[in-house]
Write a structure and sequence with these properties.
The chain is built from 3 helices and no strands. It is mostly helical. The longest helix has 10 residues. 33% of the residues lie in helices and 0% in strands.
Length: 83
């Protein structure tokens, strides 16, 4: 929501945040993948976007072809621990 305020200021119009949580981000990702490619729908994804295809056998979208990266605004460290 903090980013939306700054984005709205830059674009000169309101940026609306709509949280769609669940299924490790798959619900929100599917909504964005199926949206019209008109530039009005953005997805803020984390490194989970690269992990989800390894967790789920079938996804309703192609995580490499359904999205186009437009900005990198943060880095989130992750650690995988195998017992």
């Amino acid at each position: 929501r903090m980013l939306a305020q700054g984005l709205g200021d830059i674009l000169g119009q309101q940026a609306l945040v709509e949280n769609k949580s669940g299924a490790a981000g798959n619900i929100g990702s599917q909504i964005v993948a199926e949206a019209k490619p008109d530039g009005y729908t953005l997805l803020v994804g984390t490194s989970i976007m690269s992990i989800v295809p390894a967790i789920y056998d079938k996804l309703p979208y192609d995580s490499l072809k359904s999205f186009t990266a437009v900005a990198h605004f943060t880095t989130i460290p992750m650690v995988i621990v195998v017992p």
